[in-house]
Structures are given as C-alpha cells and as structure tokens.
TrEMBL record:
The lineage of its organism: Bacteria, Pseudomonadati, Thermodesulfobacteriota, Desulfuromonadia, Geobacterales. This is 4Fe-4S binding protein. GO terms for molecular function: 4 iron, 4 sulfur cluster binding; metal ion binding. It comes from the Bacteria. SUPFAM superfamilies: 4Fe-4S ferredoxins (SSF54862). It comes from Geoanaerobacter pelophilus.
Amino acid sequence: MKDGKRSIIVDTSRCTGCGRCVSACSSRLITLDTIGSRKVAWVKFPERCSLCGRCITECPIGAMAEYPPKAAPQ
Ligand code: SF4
Ligand code: SF4
C-alpha cells in the first residue's frame, strides 16, 4: 500500500495455499492462514508493501492482483 490507495489482494476462493508468494516476498509481508480446512495467503503488512509485483508474478494460478487495477495503456 505504497501510496495509501493501492494494495495486493488475494482471491481466496482460488488460492491453493502453495506458499510461492510467501517465498517470493523478500520483505516477508505475506503469510498463510487457515480458513476452514484450507490454507490461503494474505498480505499481513500491506502498509509496508512496495507493490513490486513479485508475488503476483510467482502465483501459478493468478490468484494475486494489484487493487485497484492499473489502467490499461491507451
Ligand atoms: S508486491 Fe512485493 S512487497 Fe508487496 S506483498 Fe508482493 S512481493 Fe511483497
Ligand atoms: S502463490 Fe497464489 S496460490 Fe500459492 S499461496 Fe500465494 S496466492 Fe495462493
């Protein structure tokens, strides 16, 4: 949440809990939590996120995204 408006969101309905995003974040801002019988990722310290995008790139199923999304180039 570098500019106070944008953040990384996780689609918890799709997240498989693989943990790749946890490893990808060198600032260790992402953790896995248990929801029911599933493990899902979430950004624990969004205020420290630099929006570098490594977690988004590393997620094999595209369950992470920057929100709100960047406007498409004209
Ligand atoms: S965008 Fe970068 S700093 Fe932010 S949670 Fe993902 S890997 Fe970590
Ligand atoms: S890399 Fe994607 S599927 Fe794996 S834990 Fe992170 S958000 Fe979930």
